[in-house]
């Protein structure tokens, strides 16, 4: 079934009827994904580092420690430069002195002091305390938190959604994260949206595609399974997958990207409605969220608004970025200008739709750079976390070494 304006106006109204440009833009987005996705050998190297950390922490804590991977590296939308998020759990029960996340994370910071190859380690006191560090042979930040089970289940839920259309959903998610970062609207600490929030927005959009959605609502599709409670929230969802379902809705990743931008820039009512992936019915903003410019509900932790730091000015800026990107990505003149500047025969492109790998990447970067608005995002008060180096952390923390002797 081909998507038409009759079924999906917010999708089809922005579709470009230029087969040459559509093919080229699809190749750009696919090229970006192939270049930046988490490769199997890279993931294996991360897993080896995790295993060495588990051994080291188990010796320090004198009990078995498990480090569970979550976040972008697990959920299907990871790239080679994204952070590594780990949740520390005690395999055989927590020690009697491990009374809070703060206490456990401060002891984790002590354990890192004598670990070779660890640099830039910091304890960060926040709603979820973490210890952040890097290995000398890697530019990747590693964040360790304690018993962060909701985040783990969120990651598995997002991964489950990618199984429904592995041909398009991961490519879309990775490209949207790149686009948001380039436009400086992909960092919650700067008053915009986290990459996780952008992925939730993408999934909600894909659920709304008519007549029956590109992906289902997995939390409403549970069959024969009861609630599964974690930290007081139900994390149950359907594990059933029907890959043939997505084939009923045609549309390239380029079409879907433009549809996503058009949906949120022109159609979605942020003043009254909530972005959420858990229910089929349209959900109004909860009364106590009316004060927020945007409402994006966490799939499991229903009281958590992923967009609570967004101001009206930032929402206006985000929508302006979307409208400008639609203009850039539907203007064939930008491709003509690029080809002329790089001595590329445009007729050759139109006939074969081919560019070499280097030029394809350059064209993608060129178009993304044109998406950046001349005016920067509105100034916002930064969300400040208390961050201390390991030296300060150790001097201010409880000495647990005597407990472990």
Overview of the structural elements:
This protein has about 400 residues and is an alpha+beta fold. The protein has two domains: about 10-35 and about 165-370, Poly(a)-polymerase, middle domain (Orthogonal Bundle); about 40-150 and about 385-405, Beta Polymerase, domain 2 (2-Layer Sandwich). About 45% of the residues lie in helices and about 10% in strands. The chain contains 15 helices and ten strands. The protein has a six-stranded mixed sheet with strand order 1-2-5-4-3-10, with helices on both faces. Strand 3 (about 120-125) and strand 4 (about 130-135) form a beta hairpin. Helix 2 packs across helix 7, helix 7 (about 170-180) crosses helix 8 (about 195-210) and helix 9 (about 255-265) runs antiparallel to helix 10 (about 310-330). The radius of gyration is 23 Å and the shape is globular. The N and C termini lie far apart (about 70 Å). Residues about 1-15 and about 395-405 have low confidence and may be disordered. Its cofactor is Mn(2+); Mg(2+). GO terms for molecular function: metal ion binding; poly(A) RNA polymerase activity; RNA uridylyltransferase activity. It holds the Pfam family MTPAP-like_central. Keywords: Magnesium, Metal-binding, Transferase. InterPro entries: MTPAP-like_central, NT_sf, PAP_assoc.
């Amino acid at each position: 079934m081909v998507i038409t304006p009759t079924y999906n106006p917010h999708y089809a109204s922005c579709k470009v009827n230029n087969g040459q440009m559509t093919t080229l833009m699809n190749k750009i987005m696919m090229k970006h994904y192939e270049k930046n996705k988490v490769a199997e050998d890279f993931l294996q190297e991360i897993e080896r580092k995790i295993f060495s950390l588990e051994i080291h922490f188990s010796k320090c804590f004198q009990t078995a420690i498990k480090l569970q991977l979550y976040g972008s590296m697990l959920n299907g939308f990871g790239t080679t430069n994204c952070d590594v998020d780990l949740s520390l759990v005690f395999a055989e029960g927590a020690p009697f002195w491990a009374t809070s996340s703060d206490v456990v994370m401060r002891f984790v910071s002590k354990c890192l002091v004598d670990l070779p190859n660890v640099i830039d380690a910091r304890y960060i006191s926040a709603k979820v305390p973490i210890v952040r560090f890097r290995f000398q042979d890697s530019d990747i930040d590693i964040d360790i938190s304690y018993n962060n089970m909701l985040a783990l289940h969120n990651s598995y839920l997002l991964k489950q959604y990618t199984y429904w259309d592995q041909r398009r959903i991961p490519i879309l998610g990775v490209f949207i994260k790149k686009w948001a970062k380039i436009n400086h609207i992909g960092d919650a600490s700067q008053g915009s949206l986290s990459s996780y929030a952008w992925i939730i927005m993408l999934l909600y959009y894909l659920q709304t595609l008519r007549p029956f959605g590109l992906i289902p609502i997995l939390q409403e599709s549970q069959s024969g399974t009861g609630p599964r409670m974690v930290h007081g929230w139900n994390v149950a969802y359907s594990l059933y997958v029907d890959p043939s379902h997505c084939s009923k809705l045609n549309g390239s990743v380029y079409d879907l990207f433009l549809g996503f931008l058009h949906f949120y820039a022109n159609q979605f009512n942020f003043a009254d409605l909530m972005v959420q992936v858990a229910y089929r019915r349209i959900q109004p903003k909860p009364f106590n969220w009316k004060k927020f410019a945007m409402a994006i509900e966490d799939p499991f932790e229903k009281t958590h608004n992923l967009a609570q730091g967004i101001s009206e000015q930032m929402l206006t800026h985000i929508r302006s970025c979307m409208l400008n990107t639609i203009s850039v990505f539907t203007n064939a003149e930008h491709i003509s200008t690029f080809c002329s500047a790089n001595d590329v025969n445009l007729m050759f492109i139109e006939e074969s739709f081919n560019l070499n790998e280097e030029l394809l990447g350059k064209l993608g970067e060129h178009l993304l750079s044109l998406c950046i608005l001349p005016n920067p995002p509105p100034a916002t008060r930064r969300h400040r976390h208390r961050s201390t180096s390991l030296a300060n952390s150790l001097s201010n923390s409880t000495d647990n070494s005597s407990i472990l002797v």
